[in-house]
Amino acid sequence: MTTSHYIAGRWVEGQGSDCISVSEPALGLPFAELMAASVAQVDQAVAAARDALPTWKKVSASTRAAFLRGFAEQLGQRRAELITLQMRNNGKPRHEAEIDLDDAVATFAYYAELAEQLPSKNRDVPLAAAGFTARTRLEPVGVVGLIVPWNFPLVTSAWKLAPALAAGCTVVLKPSEVTPLIEQTYGQIADALGLPAGVLNIVNGKAETGAALSSHNGLDKLSFTGSNSVGSQVMRSASAQCRPVTLELGGKSAIVVFDDCDPDQAVEWIVAGITWNAGQMCSATSRLLVQDGIADALLPRLQAALEKLRVGNPLTEEVDMGPLTSQAQWLKVASYFATAREEGLQCLAGGQALDREGWFVSPTLYADVPKDSRLWTEEIFGPVLCARRFATEEQAIAEANDSRFGLVATVCSADLERAERVADALEVGHVWINSVQAVFVETSWGGTKGSGIGRELGPWGLSGYQSVKHVTRCLG
Ligand code: NAD
């Protein structure tokens, strides 16, 4: 592919030195190549976004909403093609790729509505003091850099693009080098809708391109989703310029199962929480805390359920779980299997890479994992579940909170009062009670502690791209 970067409303060839190879993980083979953007092209993209800002921020809220609805409609029209591309490049099972597409459509539709409501948010502020009036005005933050990872590329980009455009910001998006094709759709849709040139720019590339964007002095804000190590570099670049950042980082989330659960139902939730997207989720519930009274009934059922999962190529087979998305991720997960063997962990299911073409691993369960094990404390980003038993509610809360991350948690209990109490005590950004990975565009997304800064989705996602201005007038 030659013209893979969308800058100032034009498709251009990459002039960087890196060649990006795009692979089909189920086969472990490349199927496309593109040249990365150069640092000069990142400059051009930021300049284009800067040039487009004065006009775009004055465009009426209803016009911005119409563009966002256009994105939702065109994504829907390209449904089949976008689902296949995610199955091919991410290795997602069909039903997961469908849900991602629906999520992206819903995100654009939701922020279209919020964009329309924007004028009513500019309002008078009653003052106790006499002699003055005051009003609030919500303004776009300005030019925003958006850097995203590869695990939910269509969705993660939608979660940033839709609220940023709704708020009146102009953007430069840098997709992951592992999945650079799907986000080109957003540039193609912008073209088809006649979105003013420079409002949305897309530059593809690896770390060099990301660093050129995140350290660019032409940005007003950077919104990053990805690993903690890169997140901290991005934050350092922002701090050099005292510029705001939103960071959506990693997780090592707990699923807490109390004695009063139906073990078969609990197994369904646990399996979904660790095998969806082959466990390559920031929100994977990868630490299972199971109460003593149900553990002996639950663990054998869980082992059987994981071993029964159909793992294979989503394009040619009916599967429950596909491959890992990249060879690097496959090697990383395999290295954790080796660590587990070195640590002498008790493996109840899986624990190995599959002996077949492609980047497959088996769904894995380790039991009675010590609290100081690397597998209990580190984000693995694969279908690897670690389990520990607990006796009391207090112990479960303490163990769940004993993590440097704080993204999500799931609580499973028939006692809803207890479930709500535990949910309130967990130090995370989102808790699911008797459900897993249920994400709605109206609710917030983001973590506490090492899982990040700021929130996406809902009205919070929009306010991340807004700046509050007050105008105070003396009447005297
Ligand atoms: P990553 O940090 O390696 O890469 C993320 C993006 O940053 C990519 O586009 C990459 O090219 C870019 N990048 C790499 N080096 C850079 C640099 N020096 N400066 C600027 N940009 C740079 O992450 P990944 O492997 O793509 O994704 C997996 C990680 O993302 C996991 O840790 C996961 O938990 C996290 N994640 C978090 C959320 C969330 O909402 N909290 C969602 C999805 C993924």
Commentary on this structure:
The protein folds into two domains: 5-249 and 451-474, Aldehyde Dehydrogenase, Chain A, domain 1; 254-440, Aldehyde Dehydrogenase, Chain A, domain 2. The strands form six sheets. It has a seven-stranded mixed beta sheet, sandwiched between helices. It contains 15 helices and 21 strands. With 476 residues, the chain is an alpha/beta fold. It starts with a strand and ends with a strand. Helix 1 packs across helix 7 (207-214). The radius of gyration is 23 Å and the shape is globular. Bound molecules: nicotinamide-adenine-dinucleotide. Nicotinamide-adenine-dinucleotide is lined by residues 147-151, 156, 174, 176-177, 206-207, 210-211, 214, 225-227, 230, 233-234, 248-251, 282, 379, 381, 407, 447, 451-452.
In a nutshell, what does this entry contain?
The protein has 476 residues and is an alpha/beta fold.
Text of the CATH class of the largest domain = Alpha Beta
Structural Rg? 23 Å
Summarize the main sheet: 7 strands, mixed
CATH-wise, what's the superfamily of the largest domain? Aldehyde Dehydrogenase, Chain A, domain 1
Uncertain runs are none
Q: State the separation between the terminal residues, measured CA to CA.
A: 65 Å
- Overall average residue pLDDT: 97
Secondary-structure arrangement, i.e. CATH architecture of the largest domain: 3-Layer(aba) Sandwich
Count of alpha and pi helical runs: 15
Strand order of the largest sheet: 13-14-15-12-11-17-18
Structural class: alpha/beta
Strand content: 15-25%
Give the fraction of residues assigned to helices: 40-55%
CATH topology of the largest domain: Aldehyde Dehydrogenase, Chain A, domain 1
Bound molecules: nicotinamide-adenine-dinucleotide
> How many beta-strand segments?
21
How many structural domains in the coordinates? 2
Anisotropy-based shape: globular
